[in-house]
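Subject: Sanity check before I submit

Could someone independently write out the structure tokens for this chain? I want to compare against mine line by line before I put it in a report. The sequence has 385 residues.
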Amino acid sequence: MKIAMVTPFYKKGSGVGGSVAELAERFAKEHNVHIFAGSVESLCTELIFHKVPMLSISSLLKELSFFVMSAVMLKRERFDIINLHYRPTAVSVDVVTNRGTPRAFLEILKTISTDQAPELPKRLVFGLNLMSILYDYPYKRGRHKKVIALSDMSKKETVKLYKIPEENIAVIPNGVDIEEFNPENRQRFRRQVREELRLKDSDFVFLFVGSHYRRKGLSVALEALSKIKMDDIKLVVVGRERLELEFFLQRVKELGIERNVIFVGEVTTGVKPYYAASDAFLFPTLYEPFGKVITEAMASGLPIITTRRAGAAELIHDGVSGLLIEDPLETDDIVEKMKRLISDDRLRTGLSIEARKSAEKLSWDKIAENTLSIYRSVIDRKQSE
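---
Independent answer below. Compare away.
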């Protein structure tokens, strides 16, 4: 099978690009796999890479140039399968993997008040609306044969926003590397990371991982932390925030929790040491098509608090393998669940064990085989048309 995978970037360990890498390297054992990417930061000799030239003058020009140039490059060869991952291209494809869209994000923005995050500049909202036109393109009738959603939540969203028949959408979650992310990392990294962050052994540490703090609920997490009012309860925030970092730093001061919050920023060496150094994972996201950080935390054996607005929450049995929040804007519910984890050792242990068991079912080998099954069904459909 000759497969083209179209992605904004290719980088192991990252979000979209990391998921593409996990799949592509497994496909390449038996198939001819081409990667069309705007940037490539991880090489694999078994893959054929095509770097898509982009104009970096602005985000919109970058998207437009990728849209056009990736299509030009794809048309130079014939592929059995073209699988689009997130950033759109100006040709019809066989499979679209829905990893989130600007249109879905704009819908979520309507639920966020200015107390939780500053109002987005009109220029940025205008840009998101323009990008929605591009990102809607592959979901139009005749532009794809099949859609892969990462969760049932994402499937329902795709049906609602793009009027795609349910039978044309398959649900295949992301996998997780259960060898890289595992509870044994605590012995390797816990003490070292805590010393670097000047955390005491007695501190109870909640971990938040992600960029785009607004969408992923950091404001709510900070407000919840401020209501607990205990000096030894800490929140470690890992991930880059380019647009609104100053707002969140100021919010921490306003809430009087400067001593409780540590902003680590982006880490280039991997986030697994921070899972190992933490006692629980707090991720009150407002919208997440999947949320690989949730499954990484589960594989690491961390008790988890997250919301049902994350696709990966469907993998959690509430009260058994994690604690789920119905409304991510309901701070009191988050506070209650945080206090339960802090005070109940038995609960934490049980959640940790069951979270790890659930993660073990998400091997990338299985996810890759399920994806190949979709490819084969699409090829059969094309041959019969």
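---
OP: Matches mine. For the report I'm noting this point. The longest helix spans residues 364-384.
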